[in-house]
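1-phosphatidylinositol-5-phosphate 4-kinase, Strix occidentalis caurina. Tokens?
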Amino acid sequence: VAAPGASKTKTKKKHFVCQKVKLFRASEPLLSVLMWGANHTVKELSLISQADHCTRISFLLCPRENLPSRFKFKEYCPLVFRNLRERFGIDDQDYQNSVTRSAPVNSDSQGRCGARFLTTYDRRFVIKAVSSEDVAEMHNILKKYHQFIVECHGNTLLPQFLGMYRLTVDGVETYMVVTRNVFSHRLTVHRKYDLKGSTVSREASDKEKAKDLPTFKDNDFLNEGQKLHVGEESKKNFLEKLKRDVEFLAQLKIMDYSLLVGIHDVDRAEQEEMEVEDRAEDEECENDGLGGNPISSYGTPPDSPGNLLNYPRFFGPGEFDPSVDVYAMKSHESAPKKEVYFMAIIDILTPYDAKKKAAHAAKTVKHGAGAEISTVNPEQYSKRFNEFISNILT
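Tokens:
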């Protein structure tokens, strides 16, 4: 019974706001599983301080929205790769957001033997499908690779390996390796080369040349009279780093790697930017000022990775953040054109085994002992590779 004179109060109904849950929506189950698995493992690792560096995390999940009813996800050597991410200056939260916030995007580029090649939605990381043999080779070199990265303080032209996973969907196993993107998430690459230092059968095919951004090869580079104008000091520093990296690969008996080169033409990019802005202004006039804001290739759109990482709001033509675009190098002031070069060693999981020795013998018979074939022993390969790259830098 209420006390006399007590005022009646109306109890307000409380509304609880549920926290938004990641849905891992993707165009195919495999990518949804990758997003879910990467998200889960990073969260799990945040709770682990010390454990065996070869720990493998496996999951089997019953039905859940946007995921297949049954699947398996395994991350190999999670603590090793977490430590590598740290040494490469990549925060786990940023890595998690890049891989899981939106579905990875298929790339026009292909890995060796047509392997599937994706980039994260923000283009910061590359996700590449690899073979079980590649996974085995990664396990073979991982300890020495980690030690090398520690010794060079992460300052290397080698691929920055950030994670390795096995996904099983509908009974089919897929292996994926995540690396830092060699190219910029912001500066457009206008021309691209894959260079091995070999001249035998090293031209882009007609099919490749028909692509929007073809991958040209050694003979294409030489026939164009192309040079990378970096200046003496930058050339010296780059070649010292290259020599150290390549000597390490030779010690591991690795060969058949390439230098991936991307060229950003600053003047061309500025012209393209002006054309985009002109079109946007025209569209805005047609829509009586109701059109959306154009997204500048040099500016930072509101929901871009640059915004997430607290970048400055604006970058000028040809400018970049060296802590993010770690493989980038500006052309020298005296260069014929103002360019930005992106250069890194790729495809380092090919050992000089019995199969490669047989290929070397067959190519030598076909092309002659003096031919610059790509399949040679690691010491010869590294020497020729260094010489070729030295000759194209100026």
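The longest strand covers residues 161-169.
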